[in-house]
Amino acid sequence: AYYPEAQEGGYVNGWIAGAITDGGSMGVVGPVEAGDAVAYINGFAAGAEANGASNVAVTYTGSFSDVALATEAAEAFLITDVDVLTGTSQSTVGAVNVAAENEIPWFGTQSNQEPWSTDQVVASQVYHWEIVLDDMFEMIEAGTLGGEVMPLTLENGGLVIEINGCYGLDSDVVSGAASVIEQIIAGDITPPA
Q1: Which residue, among 124, 128, 126, has the nearest Cα to 165 in the 3D structure?
Q2: Burial of 175 (0-12, 13-18, 19+ CB in 10 A)
């Protein structure tokens, strides 16, 4: 499977974040500056800026698994009065906790992070691997053992934005996000990778 399209989900999350921000200042906790982490972060920043955010700051911890570093990075953003946080990697559980404890909206990626903080997780970009798994198994059975690109996108349903109904987004923001998704699928918006 292939998921550079993380920028698509990042863009939608960022656009929603831009709609709910008060001061336009957002913090992003990244792991290593590579792969789908960069794609998500670049997409998030572009979506946020397209919807009025004035400052999207990014900190890379250099680790996919160091929860303490992700926590410290999120705490450092509190000094700059960010009003939205997001991040990508397995270590973001620490950053989500910082968002929850300080009542700062959080945008998740890779999986639905709502269970980590029902009150603060606004939306999550979620990979639905089952979209490509059946095709992968069929290819393996047919003797194809690699060399095929199988993207996870908003268009094929392998990438989905799951909005937390408990957060209470305005209906205009929800419909605006749906419109942004339609525009990405149609090719009218091309988020940066």
Answers
A1: 124
A2: exposed
Instruction: Work out the pLDDT band at 160, boundaries 50, 70, 90.
Output: very high
pLDDT of residue 135: 87
Give the Cα separation of 70 and 87 in Å (integer): 9
Looking up tokens 């268009």, which residue turns up?
A: 155
Of the candidates 58, 68, 6, 5, which has an alpha carbon nearest to the alpha carbon of residue 28?
58
For residue 183, the Cα-to-chain-centroid distance in whole angstroms is 18
Segment (H or E) for 31? none
Q: Is the pTM higher than 0.90?
A: yes
Tokens in use for 13? Answer: 């999350």
In the chain, which residue ranges form alpha helices assigned H by DSSP?
Answer: 6-20, 35-50, 67-79, 93-101, 130-141, 171-186
